[in-house]
Protein backbone atom coordinates (compact mmCIF):
# COMPACT_ATOMS: atom_id res chain seq x y z
CA UNK A 1 0.00 0.00 0.00
CA UNK A 2 1.24 3.45 -0.85
CA UNK A 3 2.07 5.76 2.02
CA UNK A 4 1.86 9.53 2.37
CA UNK A 5 3.16 11.81 5.08
CA UNK A 6 2.14 15.16 3.57
CA UNK A 7 -0.98 17.02 4.68
CA UNK A 8 -2.56 17.21 1.21
CA UNK A 9 -5.33 14.84 2.39
CA UNK A 10 -6.71 17.81 4.35
CA UNK A 11 -7.31 19.73 1.11
CA UNK A 12 -8.51 17.09 -1.35
CA UNK A 13 -10.22 13.74 -1.61
CA UNK A 14 -11.70 11.75 1.23
CA UNK A 15 -10.06 10.21 4.26
CA UNK A 16 -10.70 8.18 7.34
CA UNK A 17 -8.70 9.44 10.30
CA UNK A 18 -8.55 7.55 13.59
CA UNK A 19 -5.54 9.05 15.35
CA UNK A 20 -6.75 10.91 18.46
CA UNK A 21 -4.14 13.69 18.29
CA UNK A 22 -4.87 14.43 14.64
CA UNK A 23 -8.62 14.35 15.31
CA UNK A 24 -8.17 16.73 18.25
CA UNK A 25 -6.51 19.25 15.90
CA UNK A 26 -9.22 18.78 13.25
CA UNK A 27 -12.09 19.34 15.69
CA UNK A 28 -11.24 23.05 15.53
CA UNK A 29 -12.55 23.06 11.93
CA UNK A 30 -16.26 23.04 12.94
CA UNK A 31 -17.04 19.32 12.70
CA UNK A 32 -20.39 18.21 11.29
CA UNK A 33 -22.47 15.18 12.15
CA UNK A 34 -22.94 12.35 9.71
CA UNK A 35 -26.66 13.16 9.68
CA UNK A 36 -25.96 16.74 8.59
CA UNK A 37 -23.48 15.64 5.93
CA UNK A 38 -25.98 13.16 4.49
CA UNK A 39 -28.59 15.93 4.30
CA UNK A 40 -26.37 17.85 1.88
CA UNK A 41 -27.67 15.79 -1.04
CA UNK A 42 -31.00 17.60 -0.65
CA UNK A 43 -29.71 21.01 0.51
CA UNK A 44 -26.00 21.39 -0.23
CA UNK A 45 -24.50 24.59 1.18
CA UNK A 46 -22.95 26.92 -1.39
CA UNK A 47 -19.73 27.12 0.60
CA UNK A 48 -18.09 24.15 2.31
CA UNK A 49 -18.88 24.04 6.04
CA UNK A 50 -15.26 24.21 7.14
CA UNK A 51 -14.95 27.87 7.99
CA UNK A 52 -12.73 30.44 6.35
CA UNK A 53 -9.48 29.22 7.93
CA UNK A 54 -9.59 25.60 6.80
CA UNK A 55 -10.09 23.43 3.74
CA UNK A 56 -11.04 20.33 5.72
CA UNK A 57 -14.57 19.16 6.48
CA UNK A 58 -14.61 16.78 9.45
CA UNK A 59 -17.58 14.41 9.70
CA UNK A 60 -18.22 12.36 12.83
CA UNK A 61 -20.44 9.35 13.41
CA UNK A 62 -19.49 6.89 10.68
CA UNK A 63 -17.74 4.44 13.02
CA UNK A 64 -20.82 4.16 15.22
CA UNK A 65 -23.00 3.39 12.20
CA UNK A 66 -20.65 0.67 11.01
CA UNK A 67 -20.69 -0.91 14.48
CA UNK A 68 -24.46 -0.73 14.95
CA UNK A 69 -25.68 -1.98 11.56
CA UNK A 70 -25.32 -5.58 10.42
CA UNK A 71 -22.30 -6.15 8.16
CA UNK A 72 -24.54 -6.32 5.09
CA UNK A 73 -26.44 -3.17 6.10
CA UNK A 74 -23.18 -1.35 6.83
CA UNK A 75 -21.74 -2.19 3.41
CA UNK A 76 -25.00 -1.18 1.71
CA UNK A 77 -25.01 2.08 3.72
CA UNK A 78 -21.45 2.81 2.59
CA UNK A 79 -22.23 1.96 -1.03
CA UNK A 80 -25.60 3.73 -1.33
CA UNK A 81 -25.28 6.70 1.05
CA UNK A 82 -21.63 7.45 1.80
CA UNK A 83 -20.11 6.84 -1.63
CA UNK A 84 -22.65 9.16 -3.36
CA UNK A 85 -21.96 11.78 -0.70
CA UNK A 86 -18.20 11.50 -1.35
CA UNK A 87 -18.77 11.80 -5.12
CA UNK A 88 -20.94 14.91 -4.71
CA UNK A 89 -18.49 16.46 -2.24
CA UNK A 90 -15.46 15.99 -4.50
CA UNK A 91 -17.34 17.44 -7.48
CA UNK A 92 -18.74 20.47 -5.63
CA UNK A 93 -15.72 21.28 -3.44
CA UNK A 94 -12.60 19.80 -5.13
CA UNK A 95 -10.38 22.18 -3.16
CA UNK A 96 -11.49 20.68 0.19
CA UNK A 97 -10.78 17.42 1.96
CA UNK A 98 -13.61 15.31 3.37
CA UNK A 99 -12.49 13.56 6.57
CA UNK A 100 -14.47 10.92 8.43
CA UNK A 101 -13.24 10.95 12.01
CA UNK A 102 -13.49 7.57 13.71
CA UNK A 103 -12.40 7.36 17.31
CA UNK A 104 -10.69 3.97 17.24
CA UNK A 105 -7.30 2.30 17.34
CA UNK A 106 -5.22 1.35 14.33
CA UNK A 107 -6.23 -2.29 14.94
CA UNK A 108 -9.82 -1.36 14.05
CA UNK A 109 -8.67 -1.31 10.43
CA UNK A 110 -7.17 -4.21 8.53
CA UNK A 111 -5.51 -4.27 5.13
CA UNK A 112 -5.40 -7.59 3.29
CA UNK A 113 -1.92 -8.36 2.07
CA UNK A 114 -3.06 -9.83 -1.26
CA UNK A 115 -5.52 -7.20 -2.51
CA UNK A 116 -4.73 -4.32 -0.15
CA UNK A 117 -8.42 -4.05 0.62
CA UNK A 118 -9.18 -1.95 3.69
CA UNK A 119 -11.72 -3.34 6.16
CA UNK A 120 -13.27 -1.97 9.33
CA UNK A 121 -13.09 -4.49 12.18
CA UNK A 122 -16.18 -4.06 14.31
CA UNK A 123 -16.43 -4.63 18.05
CA UNK A 124 -17.94 -8.06 17.37
CA UNK A 125 -14.80 -8.82 15.25
CA UNK A 126 -16.81 -9.01 12.01
CA UNK A 127 -15.33 -7.07 9.12
CA UNK A 128 -16.95 -4.44 6.89
CA UNK A 129 -15.38 -4.08 3.43
CA UNK A 130 -14.64 -0.39 3.75
CA UNK A 131 -12.58 0.43 0.66
CA UNK A 132 -14.75 -1.76 -1.55
CA UNK A 133 -18.08 -0.30 -0.41
CA UNK A 134 -17.15 3.32 0.32
CA UNK A 135 -14.51 4.03 -2.28
CA UNK A 136 -15.69 1.49 -4.86
CA UNK A 137 -13.58 -1.59 -5.43
CA UNK A 138 -11.77 0.13 -8.27
CA UNK A 139 -10.24 2.54 -5.77
CA UNK A 140 -8.62 -0.18 -3.66
CA UNK A 141 -5.35 0.31 -5.51
CA UNK A 142 -5.62 4.04 -4.87
CA UNK A 143 -6.00 3.83 -1.09
CA UNK A 144 -3.08 5.52 0.59
CA UNK A 145 -1.99 4.92 4.17
CA UNK A 146 -1.50 8.24 5.98
CA UNK A 147 1.56 8.59 8.21
CA UNK A 148 2.55 11.21 10.74
CA UNK A 149 5.70 10.87 12.83
CA UNK A 150 6.10 7.32 11.45
CA UNK A 151 2.74 6.10 12.72
CA UNK A 152 -0.43 5.35 10.78
CA UNK A 153 -3.12 7.99 11.35
CA UNK A 154 -5.65 6.93 8.70
CA UNK A 155 -6.38 6.17 5.05
CA UNK A 156 -7.02 8.40 2.05
CA UNK A 157 -8.31 8.27 -1.52
CA UNK A 158 -7.65 11.30 -3.69
CA UNK A 159 -10.64 10.82 -5.98
CA UNK A 160 -13.20 8.16 -6.81
CA UNK A 161 -15.18 7.85 -10.02
Compact summary:
By secondary structure, the protein is an alpha/beta fold. The protein has helices at 20-26, 34-39, 62-68, 71-92, 130-134, and strands at 2-4, 14-17, 32-33, 56-60, 97-101, 109-111, 118-121, 127-129, 144-148, 151-157. The chain is globular.
Chart the SSEs and their pairings.
Elements (H helix, E strand, L loop, with lengths): L1 E3 L9 E4 L2 H7 L5 E2 H6 L16 E5 L1 H7 L2 H22 L4 E5 L7 E3 L6 E4 L5 E3 H5 L9 E5 L2 E7 L4
Parallel strand pairs: 1-9, 2-5, 3-4, 4-5
Antiparallel strand pairs: 2-10, 6-7, 7-8, 9-10
Could you characterize what this model shows?
The chain has 161 residues and is an alpha/beta fold. It has one domain. It has helices at residues 20-26, 34-39, 62-68, 71-92, 130-134, and strands at residues 2-4, 14-17, 32-33, 56-60, 97-101, 109-111, 118-121, 127-129, 144-148, 151-157. It has a seven-stranded mixed beta sheet. Strands 6-7-8 form a three-stranded antiparallel beta sheet.
Q: Structural class of the secondary structure composition?
A: alpha/beta
- Counting structural domains, the number is 1
Quaternary organisation: single chain
Q: What's the total count of β strands?
A: 10
Please provide the ordered H/E string of secondary-structure elements: EEHEHEHHEEEEHEE
With strands numbered from the N-terminus, the spatial order across the biggest sheet is 1-9-10-2-5-4-3
Helix content: 25-40%
Bin the strand percentage. 25-35%
Largest sheet: 7 strands, mixed
Rounded mean pLDDT score: 90
- Count the helices. How many? 5
Shape: globular
Radius of gyration: 14 Å
Which stretches are poorly predicted, pLDDT < 50 over at least 5 residues? none
Q: CA-to-CA gap between the ends?
A: 20 Å
Amino acid sequence: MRQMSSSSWQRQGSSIIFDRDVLANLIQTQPVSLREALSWSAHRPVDPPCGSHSRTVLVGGLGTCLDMLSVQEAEEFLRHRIKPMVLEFQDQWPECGLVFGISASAQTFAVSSASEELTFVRRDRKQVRLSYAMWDGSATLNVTQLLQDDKVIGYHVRRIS
